[in-house]
Write a structure and sequence with these properties.
- By secondary structure, the protein is of the alpha/beta class.
- The chain folds into three domains: about 150 residues, 3-Layer(aba) Sandwich (Rossmann fold), CATH 3.40.50.300; about 70 residues, no CATH class; about 30 residues.
- The protein is about 40% helix and about 20% strand.
- The chain has a six-stranded mixed beta sheet, sandwiched between helices.
- α9 crosses α10.
- The chain is flat.
- Bound molecules: adenosine-5'-triphosphate.
- Adenosine-5'-triphosphate binds next to α1.
Length: about 270
């Protein structure tokens, strides 16, 4: 469905952020991108819809090479790719419903979006999506009145309103607490499975990636150094991706988090007795 070949990006500053990435993403597969800070995860995701212009390589979405497209055709093809961001990228002063409908902007004539007159089927579909992400009763609320987890649900519904063939997801849970992060990842992966929608998820949290992703790509210094199943992520593999120091620090942080959650549960149980 998506085929990347030799995809590379060197920024003007001379940073080789991505080197020779080759990757096949079949329909319905949910892929987690992991790697240390600066490994090139965001660059890879953003090259795919050319928010970042690649320096070399091919991006085949079906039989269209996105690298070769001019501005107008690129705008057209981008409708096939939904994007979900860490900071949600909602229009804060608009309602939840209007934010979801903005996923239709690539499809409706400008005058309709300007007057906020979306076709009835778009509105019905937006209600269905809000119901699916658990926000049916928040449709008329302003986006700035929502919690982080609710905002990301709006972000998911907006991306789906676009009826994409592929989802690009850039650190969807980085601003959320651990429990909300798991809820959002569960919702996202369930929806992808229901729709057979492939997704590439930049995910900084290894345990979360292991729990929810079907396939893991490990990046280090702009290169793909691992491509396999979550079960294959052994300590050795994680050391290759993160380097020994970072990986052990991450594991320690994770143990502390688990311990803190267990302590909180014990305290709550003691209070209830
Ligand atoms: N706009 C830019 N101009 C110059 N260099 C950049 C730019 N964006 C990223 N880089 C560099 O490219 C490399 C890869 O960055 P990228 O943001 O893709 O990594 P990442 O794996 O997503 O990191 P993080 O997990 O910290 O977000 C880094 O060395 C970074 O400094």
């Amino acid at each position: 469905m998506l085929h990347l070949e030799g995809l590379s990006k060197t920024y003007k500053t001379g940073d080789a952020a991505l080197s020779d990435a080759t990757l096949d993403v079949p329909k319905g597969q949910i892929i987690g991108l992991i790697g240390p800070s600066g490994a090139g995860k965001s660059t890879l995701i953003r090259c795919i819809n050319r928010l970042v212009e690649p320096t070399a390589g091919k991006i085949m979405l079906g039989d269209v090479d996105l690298v070769k497209l001019g501005k107008t055709e690129l705008r057209h093809q981008r409708r096939r790719i939904g994007m979900i961001f860490q900071e949600y990228a909602l229009v804060e002063r608009l309602t939840v419903m209007e934010n979801v409908l903005s996923g239709r902007l690539g499809y409706v004539p400008f005058w309709r979006s300007f007057l906020r007159k979306y076709p009835p089927q778009d509105i019905q579909n937006a209600y269905r999506l809000l119901d699916r992400v658990g926000l049916m009763h928040q449709a008329d609320k302003r986006a700035d009145a929502l919690s982080g987890g609710q905002r990301q649900r709006v972000g998911i519904a907006r991306a789906l309103a676009q009826e994409p063939e592929l989802l690009l997801v850039d650190e969807p849970t980085a601003s959320l607490d651990p429990k909300t992060s798991r809820q959002i990842m569960r919702l996202l992966t369930e929806i992808c499975e229901e729709r057979g929608l492939p997704a590439i998820v930049n995910i900084h949290d290894v345990p979360l990636a292991q729990q929810f992703m079907q396939r893991i790509i490990g990046l280090n210094s702009g290169r793909i150094v691992f491509d396999g199943s979550p079960e294959e992520l052994s300590d050795d593999v994680l050391t290759t991706i993160y380097g020994a120091e970072d990986w052990h620090a991450m594991r320690k942080g994770d143990e502390e988090q688990t311990q803190a959650e267990a302590d909180a549960r014990d305290r709550m149980a003691a209070l209830a007795r």
